[in-house]
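Here's what a typical entry looks like (Bifunctional NAD(P)H-hydrate repair enzyme):
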Amino acid sequence: MKIFSAAQIREADAFTIAHEPISSTHLMERAAGKCAAWLEEHYSTAHPMYIFCGKGNNGGDGLVIARLLLQHGYQVYTGILQHSSRASADHDIQLQLLQQQYPFTIHTIGDVSDFPELPANAVIIDAIFGTGISRPVDGWVAGIIHQINDQRQKHPIVAIDMPSGLSADESSLHTPVIQAHNTLSFEFYKLAFLLPENAACTGAVSVLPIGLHPDYITQTPVRYHLADREMMRTIYRPRDPFAHKGTYGHALLIAGSYGKMGAAVLSARACLRAGVGLLTCHVPQCGTQIMQISEPAAMCITDEDTHFSTHFHRNVRTAGYKAVGIGPGLDKQPGTAKSLEVLMDEWQRPMVIDADALNLLSVYPYLLYKVPKGSILTPHPKEFERLFGKTENEVQRLQQLSEQAVNLQLYILLKGRYTAVACPDGAVYFNNTGNPGMATGGSGDVLTGILTGLLAQEYTPKAAVLLGVWLHGYAGDLAAAQLSQEAMTAGDIISYLGKAFQEGI
């Protein structure tokens, strides 16, 4: 699914109006009708609806919603904020229709003192500002937003299209924004919905189809995408019935150190569950028996070092590996850093770099420029910060993520609720699977194993990272549904990976 900017969304509306064709007023009716239907599904007529409208098209949506809810027997208060002397043409048309049928429901709000008292079972509907907002909200209108937010513990707040004050494309950190429990958006996810700093404002997001013209959607290029099930079905390759283990590649996993062999075991199990044909694990001497007993399907190479891996570069020269994954539980010894440097000089194919291998790149920054082109880096936010520095907000970090992926010609995966995958061509994909139960030790090690296994099967790096992240999250969703988010562990993600292949794609 494409993620359009605010300007592109306005263009999509205009294109639909011109080419469907449909009037702007009827398109507004269509969008607001979807919102009214959602509200009717979630709240009975026992709940009075308090709709706060601006004077733009978002306010026009609110006026249509008010009229439709009144037609279906709801009690409705419609408050119109006088923040401007001018209103949009469609807003005025909808106001006239509402005045003709239900004039007693309309109230003027010109100051904070005009904010109404709410009955105990009221629902607040925010239709003040939409994607057209171009500057932070201030003055008494900011006071109205604060008044609405003060009601959050007592009343559900539903935002129409966008929580008022939230920019679709830029950071709105430290500015007044409605803190909605639900956001009803139209046709597409907005970039703002996918950023952690906005989670308290958007609440649960529902994307409602309103029939924007498909030609605009397919023909318009975008930078940001939402990686969903439909995309995964185009990436996934079913197995050849005449295949053998050599068909699906031989992976080398360099992982583990004294006290951290669990990370290596989890990664190895995930790599095998991801479908790799053969797996060899390079581990320190202290980890050989642990790996052989814990995962007998994996072959094992023992380092010369007892507690750490410092000579793994010697194992890639003649073994015929299709992919290398490195980092889980590796530790940050100087000898490990030296071996990593030689490995990257000799291994000229894409590899998966995670955990302590990423930390070594941040300790020895020159190594970052030796990473083979097309490799996959998998930092969590703190690892990303250590690699590339701090940013003031999530939008800046996303821009930095994309710039580094392009400059270094790497795939950089920034972990989070909507894990972002930045590609060397400048595109960024957000993953839509996963849940908070995956915030547990070892989850990242599992992901490294999956990515290494897919890369060894000769998926392209882009296909491997998109499919791997999606399967990882979907397996986590299956595990959480069965076990709860609280009780699941990283090993459970591996256990449900087979089901993720079966049911997810």
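The mean pLDDT is 96.

More examples are in the samples folder.
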